[in-house]
């Protein structure tokens, strides 16, 4: 449909055009976004709001959410490393919007760069508590809600290209992201016949705070400046740059929309050619 223009354009014309440019199946749905205060999380919340969805924005502290207040947003300050935290997200969705339909599970933490022999048990526990335990508990709570309500739905777990590869000095992070891929693939086998689609999204380096932290840490471990680390990463991408948070959000919205009804149990990478 051509975008309406000119003095004779009516509000109905504009509304019809705007509706035709939106992804199908998201308008009026309720989406849980975890890690909502992060770069990718905030961009994802904004994208789903633009698509007409209701958003439950969950993080440890949602005060820093970088998008406008809306009656279609419910903020939840929650610790997703505990089952009660995941349950609180479901409760918030039901209380505010009647039910939960979709989930973009993006909560995660990085770790410092170090050799396997040099990591502490505390560092291991911190990363796996958030990246694996939190992902598992959220997925479990969402599936139970959808099954109990007899609703179809979709879950998109955010892993990383690090979850498909091995890198020196980032073993704990890589291992946690490999676990996310494993959880998603097993869950997909379990619930697909119930109308619940499960997929995993694996971004490469995205221009966010986490990426900048990794640049500093990897540089310190290898005797390089952070700018040198970034240059090396960009050189490994065919596009020669990092992804933007908006690009990741757009792909996530498409996967969870009705535009991708046969995408289930899939691993989607968004790495600018890093995996080519």
UniProtKB/TrEMBL annotation:
Alphabetically ordered keywords of this record:
Oxidoreductase
Enumerate the InterPro entries for this protein: NAD(P)-bd_dom_sf, Sc_DH/Rdtase_CS, SDR_fam
Write down the Gene3D superfamilies for this protein, in alphabetical order: NAD(P)-binding Rossmann-like Domain
Which domain of life, per UniProt? Bacteria
Q: Name one GO molecular function term.
A: oxidoreductase activity
Q: Which PROSITE patterns match?
A: ADH_SHORT (PS00061)
Tell me yes or no: is Oxidoreductase among this UniProt entry's keywords.
yes
Family note: Belongs to the short-chain dehydrogenases/reductases (SDR) family.
Protein's recorded name: SDR family oxidoreductase
What organism does the record attribute this protein to?
Parahaliea aestuarii
The opening ranks of the lineage are: Bacteria, Pseudomonadati, Pseudomonadota, Gammaproteobacteria, Cellvibrionales
């Amino acid at each position: 449909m051509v975008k309406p223009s000119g003095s004779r354009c009516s509000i109905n014309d504009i509304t019809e055009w705007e509706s035709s440019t939106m992804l199908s199946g998201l308008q009026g749905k309720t989406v849980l976004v975890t890690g909502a205060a992060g770069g990718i999380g905030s961009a994802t919340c904004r994208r789903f709001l633009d698509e007409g969805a209701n958003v439950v924005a969950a993080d440890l502290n949602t005060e820093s959410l970088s998008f406008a207040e809306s009656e279609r947003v419910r903020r939840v300050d929650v610790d997703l490393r505990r089952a009660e935290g995941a349950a609180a997200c479901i409760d918030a969705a039901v209380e505010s919007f009647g039910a939960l339909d979709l989930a973009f599970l993006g909560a995660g933490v990085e770790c410092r760069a170090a050799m396997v022999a040099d990591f502490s048990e505390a560092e291991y526990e911190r990363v796996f508590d958030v990246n694996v335990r939190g992902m598992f508990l959220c997925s479990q709570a969402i599936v139970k809600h959808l099954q109990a309500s007899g609703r179809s739905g979709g879950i998109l777990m955010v892993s990383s290209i690090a979850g498909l590869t091995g890198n020196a000095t980032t073993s704990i992070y890589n291992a946690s992201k490999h676990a996310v891929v494993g959880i998603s693939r097993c869950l997909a086998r379990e619930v697909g016949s119930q109308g619940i689609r499960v997929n995993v999204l694996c971004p490469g380096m995205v221009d966010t705070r986490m990426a900048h932290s990794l640049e500093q840490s990897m540089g310190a471990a290898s005797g390089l400046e952070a700018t040198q680390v970034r240059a090396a990463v960009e050189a490994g991408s065919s596009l020669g740059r990092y992804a933007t948070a908006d690009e990741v959000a757009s792909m996530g919205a498409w996967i969870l929309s009705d535009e991708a009804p046969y995408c289930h149990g899939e691993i989607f990478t968004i790495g600018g050619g890093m995996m080519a």
